[in-house]
Amino acid sequence: MNQRRSYRYRVVDVFTNVPLEGNPLAVFPHAAGLDASTMQKIARELNLAETVFVQQAQRADCVARLRIFTPRREMDFAGHPTLGTAFVLVQQEFVTSGTRNFRVEENVGAIPVQVDEGDSPMFWLTTPPIHDGPTVEKEKAAALLGLAPSDLADSTPQILSAGNPTFFIALKDKSAVDKASLENSRLGVIRSQYHPDPMCVFVFAPTPDGAYSRMFAPDYGVPEDPATGSSTGPLALYMMRHGLTSSQAGHHFVSEQGARMGRRSLLHVRVQGENGKDGIDVGGFVTPVIDGEIHI
After folding, report:
1. What does each C-alpha distance from 10 to 67, 141, 161, 213 come to in angstroms?
2. pLDDT of residue 1
3. Which CATH class for the 131-283 domain?
């Protein structure tokens, strides 16, 4: 009989300082020796939106390599796994004590991370380059959400990607966002006509503080995500382009996500340079909740 192996992991709630809110994440800080198939099975076993396996970096400018898995597939880049894992790396001294800037390696490349000063610091990532995808007619976007075209805001729905393709649909108000329900059969139509690869569907309404948001990702085995950091940088760009938030350098706003699910998350955005030309940072608090061990 083969001897079973044990791996320690931590579960942290990301984009919150309140336990059992935000987006839960499992992090395996010592995952050397695990192959991709086993990592995928573990992610399916834990059944969180994402699970991260920390391995030795292949790039000299990064402190660690992150392999990120949803219950269904590996991700090239994801936001709450980046920040939640950065918290664990700091806690377990993968980075020198007091270090406030470092990089982690993901399939999309090196991701810069910044850590604020203080006893309860906020963690920030810099969004990778954002690429434009196709725009979609409002009538088709509304049908995808089970809404009327009159529920949509004036801006044209569009697919954008910073390593995680996301279909952005702006709605008129919070009630429309809460009313939205993804019609999976129509997602196949959108994919066949506009974007064949897996994607997230992100709906939001502008608010005085920023945005009120929800995200659906059945392509990744995630019916609804409490917080989506990889989509929040592109959200900021989309909002700036359509005059839904300020495009001035230094602008700061908050996307509230997950409230409809009972897992309220606050995703902070910093705009670097006019229209984010010098980068868009996404940040939040991280709260540890579970220390566990798996035997395989």
Report:
1. 15, 38, 29, 27
2. 55
3. alpha beta
17-39, pLDDT tens digit by residue?
Answer: 999 999 999 999 999 989 999 99
Domain boundaries along the sequence of the chain: 6-126+285-295, 131-283
The DSSP line for 72-100 is S-EES--HHHHHHHHHHHHHTTSS-TT--
Q: Tell me the residue length of the chain.
A: 296
* pLDDT on residue 67: 98
Burial class (CB in 10 A: 0-12, 13-18, 19+), 92: middle
- Confidence category of residue 96, pLDDT binned at 50, 70, 90: confident
- Which CATH architecture does the domain made up of 6-126+285-295 adopt? Roll (3.10)
Query: Residues 6 or more apart from 32 whose CB is under 8 A from it?
Result: 55, 56
pTM summary value: 0.95
Q: DSSP letter string over 117-177?
A: SSSS--EEEEPPPPEEEEE--HHHHHHHTT--GGGB-SSPPEEEESSS-EEEEEBSSHHHH
Distance from C-alpha of 14 to C-alpha of 51, rounded to nearest angstrom: 12
pLDDT digits (tens, 9 = 90+) for 233-287: 999 999 999 999 999 999 999 999 999 999 999 999 999 999 899 999 999 999 9
3-state secondary structure of 53: strand
Report which of 154, 255, 269 is spatially closest to residue 211, judged by C-alpha positions: 255
Q: Are 237 and 166 spatial neighbours (Cβ–Cβ below 8 Å)?
A: no
Residues identified as active-site: 50
